[in-house]
Amino acid sequence: MINQKYKDRLSNKSVIRELAGYARKRGKDIGYENVFDYSLGNPSVDTPTDYNSAVIDMYKTMDSMSLHGYSPSLGNTHAREVIAASLKKRFGIDYETKHIFPTTGAAGAIAHAVRAVTKPGDTVLGFAPFFPEYRPYINDSGAKLEVVPPDLPDFQINFKELEKMMNGNVTAVLINSPNNPSGAVYSQATLERLAAFLNTCQKKYGHDIFIISDEPYREIVFDGKKCPYPSHYYDNTLSCYSFSKSLSLPGERIGYIAVNPRATDADILVDIFAQISRGIGHNCPSSTAQLGVTAVIDETSDLSVYETNMNLLYDALTEIGFEVKRPQGTFYIFPKALEDDAVAFCKKALKYDLIMVPADSFGAPGYVRLAYCIDTEKVRRSIPALKKFAHEVYGK
Amino acid sequence: MINQKYKDRLSNKSVIRELAGYARKRGKDIGYENVFDYSLGNPSVDTPTDYNSAVIDMYKTMDSMSLHGYSPSLGNTHAREVIAASLKKRFGIDYETKHIFPTTGAAGAIAHAVRAVTKPGDTVLGFAPFFPEYRPYINDSGAKLEVVPPDLPDFQINFKELEKMMNGNVTAVLINSPNNPSGAVYSQATLERLAAFLNTCQKKYGHDIFIISDEPYREIVFDGKKCPYPSHYYDNTLSCYSFSKSLSLPGERIGYIAVNPRATDADILVDIFAQISRGIGHNCPSSTAQLGVTAVIDETSDLSVYETNMNLLYDALTEIGFEVKRPQGTFYIFPKALEDDAVAFCKKALKYDLIMVPADSFGAPGYVRLAYCIDTEKVRRSIPALKKFAHEVYGK
């Protein structure tokens, strides 16, 4: 019998995907270059040529079994060594091979992390605004996601609400900095305060509370700054990384979990992830992708376009009169809509071929997300449309 | 808090992996060429050069987004079209793109299939002997695997026991032909009888009962024969395929589910699989692998070595006096041990540098599995060791 839980979900489709579908359809009518499609977080810059060259070289020179054979259930050992060494060098944390578990992107990482450190019925606290896919990631594990309301207007952590919502049933908190959709980066002060609070709670409730840290945008930070690394501030941290954005290869499904060496059971957590894999059909990312990223471990795509686009959009939105926080990273910007109903706002924008995503499902009703991982030239061309829309519909 | 369920599993490690570990270690001492390692089902023949050439070509010519960008959540459309067309042509079943869901190998396929057609608490019936990983595949979904005892000595289906174990709580049966570990291929008569029985049960209990058909060895069949295709005989069939064995690329994690177009809800099952992906962190196999297999969709590696090896081993084992059914496919042979305790038998064999796997965890105590996906030359050299072992320890 078809499982009713999943069948029910079919009638509840992702707003983002529906808008992206509309954009593609409209593109067929008027040319996709004329659709200002800010709906999807699909990286727009090329994968580094070094990555492609490394894979071509592997395919030309490696023997079949070494390249295409089964990975060990903990992941390719060489890939784990290279990732551990890179993180150790970069963040000064004593990662060893045993702390690294390759995953199918950040989605796979979170799927493993949440199952490892919670049990069905536990509560995981997340923070608005948040990536809506966190709901199935967490809820399908048997734990339950509860969302702390946003800290307005800065999109750091709303500690007042966090303190209210914390209780003995919480065994993990899920953070995401740089943040999708707000573009905010958690400050050192925010992470220190979160760590202090969680340490107090661990003592009070007598059990571990893990931070599951979703970090796919770690490399996309503006103004020459660096993103404070959550694992520096709190021992029980599982860093969930994806190369999707930094190397522009989301289709390859490659990322990892890095277990803080000072976390509880740090030496066996990766073994536990491998046990979890057996039940969810994961069994490692592709061997090509595991080996490919090791060849370019400290490289990124040319990510500078995202900062260029951000500045253009931020200046335009501010000039028009939007209430908007300047993003510190990612390729998202998160203005307040020009009316209370962000869904209505986004629908009206479609007439101007502007595709924006209402943030109701992100836990921040009234806001909209623009994903500016598109050509700068298109961003420039979208600005007159934005101005026209705001002027004609809202008198701005 | 670390999830105790997975922590407990760490003390219950796979016998196969332990033996493979022993073989590697022994190989360091005496040279791996002198260890007759029949433990692991890792394909020994090369991936077709056409696959590697196709990938190299893709990496040289495709634009970054088309090659490395996100796949749609239902999988790469071109890959789904090519797979559907190939299956339609080969099996004469009206598969369309909407019936194909690319997965991370057969493990990913089964993970999705079982969640789609069962709900937690349901029973899935499997048939001994069976691949031990079926336990976590099924049990971690919330359904429960119950195992029908083997049909001796032919390893078809024990219908007497199946009829006893069937009840209204059963919503799926999991079959695997050609079979790991027995090498048996379900005959047309077996599949017809199974279909008739399940059709009767569907009427009796008033709900669907799906066949989840695990088919990674479909292409490895001996004596010029073909493997009867389960979906021909029963409408509610989900064919779970992997290219791991046919193209020798288990590390790339690429396979698919093919939904029988006549199955209940055939038009929405793939949409349901995509919903399941959201919760288990799957989000498609790698884009490279999806595109790579489409380039060689009707090819296989040179699989003839497995038949050569099978004949050598079958003749030797028979000559020595083992009770053994001649395999009809796969790269496994499944003799009865020369004493009741197959674990003791396999331990004694280690002294002769023969690594075989006791089949207790496969649901067939007293039997052993030899995975002969190794060089033919090594198979030849192992025969004197087999003879010496059987003679010195068991007087054969």
In short:
Chain A is an alpha/beta fold and 396 residues long. Chain A has 14 helices and 12 strands.
Structure report:
Two copies of one chain form a homodimer. With 396 residues, chain A is an alpha/beta fold. Chain A folds into two domains: 4-47 and 302-394, Aspartate Aminotransferase, domain 1, CATH 3.90.1150.10; 70-295, Type I PLP-dependent aspartate aminotransferase-like (Major domain) (Aspartate Aminotransferase, domain 2). Chain A contains 14 helices and twelve strands. Chain A has a seven-stranded mixed beta sheet with strand order 2-8-7-6-5-3-4, sandwiched between helices. In chain A, strand 3 (123-127), helix 7 and strand 4 form a beta-alpha-beta unit. In chain A, helix 3 packs across helix 11 (287-295), helix 5 runs parallel beside helix 11 (287-295) and helix 12 (304-320) packs parallel to helix 14 (376-394). The longest helix of chain A has 19 residues, at 376-394. At the A-B interface, helix 1, helix 3, helix 4, helix 6 and helix 7 of A face helix 1, helix 3, helix 4, helix 6 and helix 7 of B. Chains A, B: This is Aminotransferase. Chains A, B: Residues 36-383 form the Aminotransferase class I/classII large domain. Chains A, B: Keywords: Aminotransferase, Transferase. Chains A, B: It comes from Candidatus Weimeria bifida. Chains A, B: Belongs to the class-I pyridoxal-phosphate-dependent aminotransferase family.
